[in-house]
Structure formats: C-alpha cells, structure tokens
Write a structure and sequence with these properties.
Three copies of one chain form a homotrimer. By secondary structure, chain A is α/β, with parallel strands linked by helices. Chain A is built from six helices and five strands; from the N terminus they run E-H-E-H-H-H-E-H-E-H-E. Chain A starts with a strand and ends with a strand. Chains in contact: A-B, A-C, B-C. At the B-C interface, helix 2, helix 5, helix 6 and strand 5 of B face helix 1, helix 3 and strand 5 of C.
Chain lengths: 155, 155, 155
C-alpha cells in the first residue's frame, strides 16, 4: 500500500533514513510519495549555482544553505561538516549505499518526489535550481496522497 | 477523515509546517486534532508574563523559553533570532500566511488543540499561561484520537 | 491496534515522548513496536564500556555518543547536560516516571524493541553493547510491522 514521507529535514542522517525507508517500501512494491519542504528542499538542489531571480533575503538564505545531497550536514555532532564526512566514510567502509545512490535508486524505482511550492517561495528556491524529475505542488496534493496511504511519516 | 498532529517542536519552521498541514486538512473538511507537548507548548503561551506558582527550576525553564508564536526561533540558521526574523520578512514579501494568522485560522476552523498535561508539569506551564480555547489532556486522549485518524504525524 | 514508533532521535525529551506514547498504547492493549535507528540506538547502549571490534572512525563515534538512557541530553537548552539534569530533577519533583523506568515498563509490557542493523553498522555499535531483550532487523521488518499498524510515528 502507498506510503508518504514528508522530508522536512535537510540533515544527512534524517534524509538517509527517509530514503532508506522509501526505497525499502518501493522494493516491496509499495507506491511511495516523498514531499520535500523547508530544509528538505536542499536535498534536491543542483550542486552548481543556477542563476535565478531572488530578493536580497532569499539570496542570502540560498547562499547559506547546502546545495544538494553531497553537502548536507549531520543533525548532531556535525562539527562543521567533519561529522558528515566521517559518517560517509564509515558508510563506504561498510558498503552501505550512499545518499546520492539512494536518490538515484528512488528515481529509478518510480518514487514520486514532490517539491513543496510554498516552501520554495519562503526559501526563494526556483524550479531550475532543483534536480530533474520532480513534481511541484502544495499541501492539498500532499493530503490527497496521504489519504491513500497507510504509512505517513514526517521526517 | 481525521488527522492528528503531535506538535513536539517549538521551532518556527516546524510549527509552521504543522499548522499549514492542519489548516489544509480542515479546509478539506477533515477533523483535525493537534496535540502540543514539550517545546510545542511554547507556541500556545500568552505573550505577556502571567503570574503562576512554580518551583525554582520550573521558573527558570519558563523564563528561558519563548512566550508564544511571535517569539519562536528557527530549527536551523536561527542566529539568535535573526534567521526567524528574516524568514518572517520573506513570508510577508511573498504574501504567505504568518504563524499567528495560521493559529487564528486553525481556531476558526474548529481544529481541536490539546495541551499535554504531563508536559505542562515537566515544563512548569500552568493553564492560565496558555491561550484560550484549548483542551487539557494526556497520552490516552491522544491515542484515542489517533485511533480514529488515518494520518498521524509527529512534528 | 498495532502502533509503531521509529526512534531516530537520541535526545532525552524526544525519547521520553516516544516511551510515553509506547507505554500508553501498550496499557490500552495495543501491540507496540519500537524501531531504534541512528542516534536512537544510544538509548539502548549499556552504561558500561563493552569491548567490541570497531574501525577507528566507529570507535570515535562510539566514544562521543551517550551510553544509555541516563546520559542523553535535551534537543534544546541542554547547556552541556545541565538542561537534561534540570529536567530530570523537575520530573522527580513532579512524580513523573523517569526514562529508565519507562524503558523497564516497556519491556515488562512486552513492547517489541528492534535495533536497526544498518544503523548499527554506520555507528559501529555491536550487539553486545546494547541492553538485553532486543531484536535485530532492518527496514523490511519495520515496513512489515508498519503495514499492520494504524499509527506510525517517526520521532
């Protein structure tokens, strides 16, 4: 049965958890919808700077936030990025799938990835700054999906 | 169908997400129950100081925690309140409903707002310190509501 | 009906919320499964140091993370552990069940506690470092449990 996950967090550890659950469910033939809001939008940002019209404040937010899955920090013990680097290294040593690989797998498995348009307005993030293959929608769409699902998580 | 949201966080960004989802669901004619625990209780505090009997430690907690929706900080990039101020300014520029407006809308839409009595004891928050229109209950009430709902989020 | 809780957080306040909900549900005769991942594994660590083979990075992670329920900090206002100490003191004054007591109650009520094996690999935590009475499994097991439950929370 369908699962939905709101990815509110942009922390590497929480986003990893979200994608492990999402891919696990898709592998078990569940439909999965991931809804990216607030800091979670950073997961979907392209790694390179993309020109986009922004207000001064939006440009400041944009400059300070991580661009894409490779740049995310940990929610705890990040130590200016060192914690995230350490965790990625341990994961490699243990042959655990990395976040970028999990995102690719999610797309290949047909997991629906929706970027929250209201959050994009707040954060000043434009469509062209985000990776390909997304849908763009608001809370009503999320609620419609959640109504059809039997597991709904907020991460 | 009914939705429940546990508002554990007292961060502006997370509380905004909670109220956007709650109001969205109520607008779609869902019954909605919000259950405020721990830091989430700060959302419901009156802006002015209200006299209340507290132990020394409870008084300290009370003095350090934000009083009401206007004072909440961001979960990330708060920079001593500057981040929250910036986000509120961007939201105004983008004509996005503010948190105090969302709370009023929630009350007008008949969303049930419950303050967790156990958390109130831990935090030393008294009924008279909280806004009007709340119910006061514990985990059994939450579970009863959640059993009737098809979407249950912990934020 | 069954409830599942993913305990991702290792913060005292969030873990308290998880165990209050879990014990509340079990008291109402619900089956409950708690699935401990990432920082949540720290809740289950034995208080004493247990010899275990680890890589250098895993040993570093292990040394920096709290060992067991007594050592957890708050998600906010922890002030190097002082906040957690204050909260525990207030809880005692108010006769509120402590986290170690809630964990014992959970075990006595037959709540199923599963440690996430993938997270154990990432964090470098070995079975012998965790308390007795756990099951060890991955995301597929979690999803199987969640499919049978009507309330599924991510904390």
């Amino acid at each position: 049965m369908k699962k939905t996950i709101i990815v509110f967090s942009g922390d590497l550890d929480k986003v990893l958890a979200a994608f492990v659950i999402a891919n696990g469910a898709a592998a078990m033939d569940d439909e999965v919808t991931m809804f990216f809001t607030f800091w979670g939008l950073n997961v979907l940002r392209k790694a390179e700077k993309v020109p986009a019209k922004k207000s001064f404040l939006q440009a400041m937010f944009g400059a300070m936030m991580p661009r894409g899955a490779e740049q995310l920090g940990l929610s705890k013990m990040n130590f200016g990025g060192m914690g995230a680097k350490m965790m990625k290294k341990v994961m490699k040593q243990q042959n655990i799938t990395s976040l970028p690989e999990l995102i690719t797998a999610a797309q290949e498995q047909g997991i629906k990835m929706i970027a929250c348009t209201m959050s994009m307005d707040v954060m000043g993030i434009r469509e062209q700054e985000l990776v390909e293959g997304l849908e763009f929608a608001g809370v009503a769409t999320y609620l419609g999906e959640a109504d059809e699902a039997n597991v709904n998580l907020f991460i």
